[in-house]
Write a structure and sequence with these properties.
Elements lengths: L1 H13 L6 H20 L5 H21 L3 H13 L2 H17 L14 E10 L4 E9 L5 E8 L5 E8 L2 H11 L2 E6 L1 H16 L8 H15 L16 H14 L7 H15 L9 H15 E3 L1 H22 L3 H21 L12 E3 L30 H21 L5 H14 L11 H13 L11 H7 L4 H14 L5
Antiparallel strand pairs: 1-2, 1-5, 2-3, 3-4, 6-7
Helix pairs in contact: 1-2, 2-4, 2-8, 3-5, 4-5, 9-10, 10-11, 10-12, 11-13, 12-13, 14-15, 14-16, 15-16, 16-18
């Protein structure tokens, strides 16, 4: 393991200018130490974890302390200054011992993890899409900043962490770019903002972060946890009650002249999306927020025909104008968001269904929380076209709505995962499930049934197994589920329905 750490550190240092070596050495070793912690002591009681960690770093200190090459001394120095309290003492002793006899130590090695945080600023986009926390580190040889970008459109997660130029150059770049507000904050306040956002990031199974985030997060956490002041937790974000949301809708309707009949419903969906899935509140005006709502969230949340979706751009544009006036946002930012509606309108047109539930034109079916993870429903699929419409005759409203969601989604998922030839069978099984065994639906989440149908078809057609194109694990990964869940749900199908061979 130590040889791997040495090799990793050498490669990381070789990729950057010499002026950055102290920072990159700290970041490289902090990342490696974090990965080791995940692998070697990820679980167990705190005492057990601490014992394993102390044993490991004591052994590492002994080995590195006996060596005399410069590379191992650089690694030992970095470890002694970045590893947590449980393993730090033996590494520091080994480092002091080697320092007495080590020949020709470069000056930059003495500056590893020795930077002092002097100030912090927060730069926020006027549209509320995100904010950057800039930590200023003063050093005669290499003053630098650590910049943390927090994405409000993804629930205020940390999306990027990188080392930037000195703070005066960062401020100059922000001011030159415009459309940002800048404020100075206490380091402890900055630390609280960042640590809370990192907690949000860890709640993601696969957060959409940059490569720099992966590299510099260990350095960032080490530096924040070594601050003399305790981090100050940001204020709890205020919640918007259903009554307050309805009040906003009423105020909007009173301010507008002529709007489509579905305006109240559409703007309430906008408010719910902005409040429940992003940070910044319902009155935020942003071209990115328009994209998320029109191209991603609304088509996955609402099943409707073109009559309903044709009304959405008109209502959203009116809402953006209303919100821009309420917040006194610059006109160019409002215009940019309104123009984005036209850009993303085709996403709604592609999502429109023909009579999705056999109801009158303009009606829609809203997928409630129990079905909100049907993430790919009704998205256009190259080579497959639009899904067929199920026969809803003889079904009550609840069954009709369920079938309208389930059958086309199983059709799309089978076509995308297994191939177009398997889509019709998936559609038929879904239709039989709703018609012949409606009580069975309660035994799994609605979103699980299309996946189980695809799993069943893959096994019935012998597409899974040794020498076949798929493995159970790969198929389960493609279906965003676990083999155990899929196997159990598919068995419910075969035990209940008489399916053709």
């Amino acid at each position: 393991m130590l040889e791997t750490l040495l090799e990793t550190l050498s490669l990381d240092l070789a990729a950057v200018p010499a002026a950055l070596h102290p920072v990159i050495a700290e970041a490289s070793v902090a990342r490696s130490a974090s990965m080791l912690a995940d692998q070697l002591w990820p679980a167990g009681r705190p005492d057990e974890i601490g014992e394993v960690e102390r044993f490991f770093w004591a052994d590492a200190a002994r080995v590195l302390g006996e060596r005399r090459d410069l590379e191992s001394f650089v690694l030992l120095t970095s470890l002694a200054r970045t590893v947590g309290p449980a393993g730090r003492l033996p590494l520091q002793r080994a480092h002091v011992s080697r320092l007495r006899t080590q020949d020709a130590v470069p000056e930059w090695v003495t500056r590893i993890a020795g930077f002092r945080l002097t100030s912090a600023i927060v730069s926020e986009d006027i549209t509320g899409d995100g904010l950057s926390v800039v930590l200023d580190y003063d050093d005669e040889q290499h003053p630098h900043t650590v910049v943390v970008f927090i994405d409000n459109n993804l629930g205020a997660i940390v999306k990027d962490v990188f080392v930037g130029p000195p703070v005066d150059r960062v401020l100059e770049a922000y001011q030159r770019g415009g459309r940002v507000t800048i404020r100075t904050v206490r380091p402890s306040t900055a630390a609280g903002i960042i640590l809370q956002a990192l907690g949000e990031t860890r709640d993601y199974d696969d957060p959409p972060v940059s490569e720099d985030f992966e590299f510099f997060t260990g350095l960032l956490v080490n530096r924040l946890t070594q601050l003399p002041e305790r981090p100050i937790r940001p204020p709890v974000r205020p919640l918007l009650s259903p009554r307050q949301r309805d009040q906003l809708v009423e105020e909007f309707l009173e301010s507008a002249s002529v709007l489509p009949d579905d305006a109240a419903d559409i703007v309430r969906l906008w408010i719910d999306h902005a409040v429940d899935h992003t940070v910044g509140g319902p009155l935020r005006v942003s071209a990115v927020l328009v994209e998320l709502f029109l191209a991603h969230w609304l088509p996955r949340k609402v099943l409707a025909d073109s009559t309903y979706f044709d009304a959405v751009p008109v209502v959203v544009k009116a809402w953006l104008q209303f919100a821009g006036d309420r917040t006194q946002l610059p006109l160019d930012a409002v215009d940019e968001a309104i123009d984005a509606v036209d850009v993303w309108q085709p996403a709604l047109e592609a999502a429109a269904m023909v009579d999705p539930v056999g109801t009158k034109p303009g009606e829609r079916v809203f997928l409630e929380d129990t079905t909100n993870d049907l993430e790919d429903a009704y998205r256009a699929l190259a080579g497959l076209g639009s899904p067929p419409q199920p026969d809803l005759r003889g079904l009550d409203n609840s069954q009709a709505a369920t079938l309208s969601v389930l059958a086309p989604h199983a059709w799309l998922m089978a076509g995308e995962t297994l191939g177009t030839a398997y889509a019709p069978d998936a559609f038929d099984i879904a239709e039989r499930l709703v018609r012949d065994a409606p009580d069975l639906l309660a035994k799994a989440r609605l979103s699980t049934w299309p996946r189980a149908i695809v799993w069943l078809l893959a096994h019935r057609h012998r597409l899974v197994g040794p020498g076949e194109p798929l493995t159970p694990y790969a198929l389960a990964t493609d279906l965003s589920s676990s083999p155990a869940t899929l196997r159990k749900t598919a068995k419910l199908l075969t035990d209940t329905l008489i399916l053709p061979l």
